[in-house]
Amino acid sequence: MTSPDHQESPKITEERFLDIGGTDVEEEPENDDSLEEIDRPWNPEQIRVNTKQFSLRNALDMIDDESLELAPDFQRGRVWKPRQKSQLIESVLLQIPLPAFYFAEDADGLMRVVDGLQRLSTIHDFVRGGEGENFTLKGLEYLRGAVEGKRFGDLPAPWKRRINNTQIVAHVIDPTTPSDVMYDIFKRINTGGTPLSAQEIRHCMSRDRSRDILKAMTSTKAFNSATNGMGGHIRMNDREMALRFAAFWLRGLEEYARFAAMELFLRDTTSLLDSSEAVPQQQVQNLESAFGKAMENALLVFGEQAFRKWPWRSSGRNPINRALFEAWAIALAQYDAADLDRRRPAIVEAARDLMTNDYDYLEAITSSTGDVRRVRYRFAATSRAAEAGK
Hints:
Blueprint: E1 15-18, E2 21-26, H1 33-36, E3 49-55, H2 56-64, E4 68-69, H3 82-93, E5 101-105, E6 111-115, H4 117-128, H5 144-147, H6 157-165, E7 167-173, H7 179-189, H8 198-205, H9 208-218, H10 221-226, H11 237-259, H12 262-273, H13 281-302, H14 322-332, H15 337-357, H16 359-364, H17 372-386
Parallel strand pairs: 4-6, 5-7
Antiparallel strand pairs: 1-2, 3-7, 5-6
């Protein structure tokens, strides 16, 4: 084993920064060639999108009676500043046409907002928000003298009617559209300043059961302690990491090899979690217990460096690495804390040596991390490191 004292200090890996700030999760470039070879090109007849027109009153009524869903827990869509919200309402009052919305309809007739969540949430908050929730208009450009400082309830009746009667155009994705095609549509139609992440799209496409499971897994003290408080992440990176653990814990490497692409694997696992027949409640409880144990063990062994690249002679702390997260979480879920505590120095040494001297391992956690050979290699190498000191 190479001595730590003779290693060069590597650069700290950069995390991805967005308009909302740092994500504290390392960007994961993927080679999408494998995806392009699967079920493409789409048959145009499978793409079914109907265009409908609604009044804002009708759309808000559908939100209130839960036939139009604003994607629960979808935090990224609600980050507009007060002035942005007010100027959207001003645009409606000025009768400036709003950009088209995209909704996705399921087999039960429930529709989810795919594109336009910020706009529709803002309008709903202003018009239907309860006391203390509906905001005051401020920072207007053209109607300052008329409605500045007013809430919806303060507006004259003609202004209220103008908002309620405003017509919006919505492109509704038909429920008969295959899920893979729907996912591709979701990726293409994002019009906001920050496109939806893969997990945000999965969230839009999923049902309450998988959402609740992933939320429960990432709301625990164990998870937040091991990930420096990542629960409730604004880009849903926390939910994706929990989903990755669930996918490999429930299904294993051989099942992953059948999909040969991380996105397809995670999408299919989301569908499984939505089914109480495929994943019964007892299995969900076992999953959540194993995940909690993995988080506690990761914190015990690696402390604040859990799930981060930590080569010898590194300074500072890298962002969380998703490939390391899934491999180490799965590996550590099977051990008792007392055993790991005794072997901690040996495990840390083995892990850091992997991240310093094993170039195949470094490739497996850095680029094309969904490649089947690299997935197999990092799981096998991580498992061996977790056995160090025995």
